[in-house]
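Researcher: Next entry in the queue.
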Amino acid sequence: MIRTGIGYDSHRLVAGRPLILGGVELPSELGLEGHSDADALCHAVTDALLGAACLGDIGEHFPDNDERYRDADSIELLRAATGMVREAGFAVVNVDATILLERPKLAGARRAMRERLADAIGLGPDEVNVKASTGEGIGFVGRGEGVAVLAIATLRRAAEND
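Model: Structure for this entry, 162 residues:
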């Protein structure tokens, strides 16, 4: 049995916060606003994994009104969600994500993001893909007001020895 899930997240860019995507802190004057570390890439991937396993969404498991998750490391939330997926009897096949962000450019950081995500999910870096695009000056992404991320995850029913 193969399952596919889609995840989406967006956060506003603000002064005074770090810009963390895929567990990698990027040099930037603006960071992402949120209850946790606001890592929109991890959040979208987490939702894709949970969705593929029919386990709800990130807000159900790690609500933003729960103080336990204030400033939480989203890589650790992703790791926990991956554990839930495995407990439900699934193995992760691969993940693909697209980050929509006007700046900074992400080409130099995508490999590190792939490696951090892969480690948290228990995959090889060649089974996690991270792409980046801009908003071409259109919408909140294009105006540099925030970031949006789309992710897709593929799962398979795990065999006894997985």
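Model: The longest strand covers residues 2-15.
Researcher: Noted, moving on.
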